[in-house]
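Practice record 12: protein with heme C.
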Amino acid sequence: MQYGGKIVIGLVIFVGLLLLPTVYDLGAGSAGYKQPKLQMPAPPNDKNCVEDTEWMRKNHMQLLNDWRDWVVRDGKTVYVNSHGEEFEISLQNTCMKCHNDKEQFCDKCHETAEVTPYCWDCHLAPKGAK
Ligand code: HEC
Ligand code: HEC
Ligand code: HEC
């Protein structure tokens, strides 16, 4: 029985390794998909999004919805974020000016999440800064 302890330790490590990917997946976010590698904005647009990254990841759909309503219904053109900074309310001139590679940013996530926003039927999509 002199190997018993080692076997138990070995089993514990083995089971731990088996569980590791699951633990990682749980941390990956509520959408239930693994976040792909994204093309992030180049300087000088690489500092901050209009809101915090975490918040944007979860809420950008709703924010875009609000933005559209504010412009189209209320004629509002300036968004003041939670830090008091001002942004023009515009999908093309604001979001896509920083995120100027739609394919490597927006599309990357949406393909993984299997959503196809129809916005680009009308709004112009930037092709990237290549
Ligand atoms: C001033 C440049 C800028 C503007 C304008 C901007 N973003 Fe961002 N955005 C960034 C940066 C930089 C990050 C990543 C920040 C980081 O690394 O934490 C980011 C992060 C994000 C993320 C999260 C990505 C992730 O890692 O999960 C989403 C989604 C997003 N932006 C969507 C938008 C949308 C939609 C708009 C317009 C409503 C917008 N952004 C406007 C610069 C910008
Ligand atoms: C970090 C990953 C990620 C990035 C980056 C991202 N999205 Fe999304 N987006 C999602 C997910 C996930 C959904 C679906 C959410 C849901 O169904 O609740 C979504 C949904 C949307 C929707 C709503 C579509 C619908 O049919 O409900 C719009 C509009 C949208 N995204 C626009 C954008 C734009 C514009 C960009 C790039 C500036 C972008 N997203 C970048 C993950 C991302
Ligand atoms: C049928 C065409 C069409 C589709 C599809 C469409 N839009 Fe628009 N959108 C418009 C028009 C037209 C305006 C008004 C432009 C203005 O008044 O400056 C607008 C305005 C907006 C605005 C505010 C002004 C601006 O320039 O960005 C936002 C934000 C916006 N749309 C987001 C979206 C999002 C997000 C989607 C996809 C979920 C979407 N739109 C789909 C036609 C469309």
